[in-house]
Fold this protein.
Amino acid sequence: MPRGGKRQGAGRPAGTGKYNETTKAVRLPISLADEILEALARDPQQVEPATIVSSIFKTDNYTKCRVPLFLNPVAAGFPAPTEDYIEGKIDLNRHLVKHPDSTFLVRVVGESMQDAGIHPRDLLVVDRSLEAISGKVVIAVVDGELTVKRLRKHRNKLWLMPENPNFQPIEIGENMELHIWGVVTNVIHAL
């Protein structure tokens, strides 16, 4: 009798499981698996309208993508004379990712951070090795919910501050569970 491999008639018929469609196996880093699985298990209808994390990606530090870096800066006001001189090339991985083993990209949903330049569908570069100090934009897990907010410590109280006047700050009470998942270092925003 052969061992291993797919056996005819074995397993659940396609499309008959919990989701009524075929599924795909996904590998997750052990350090993130519990948080991701808990986030996926929550009812999305119960999430308050805020800026939340919709996807988490590990950076690929082995890919080299060198882009030309022009010597002259680009003026945002009056046009500046142009020169066709390229200073060199810049690797965006080296520029955006300072700690490769602890850096992730997350995609956000919502508008609570729009005044900080974070818009729906933006990618955030998140470094988990940086210290989350007051004033930094962080990815926080509040009572099991991932969100992006500005961390604020004021008069021995901790707050997660939105950057949109239509949203309320979140005061972290003593009965709330808070875990700072990482510090946002860069925003990748499509025009």
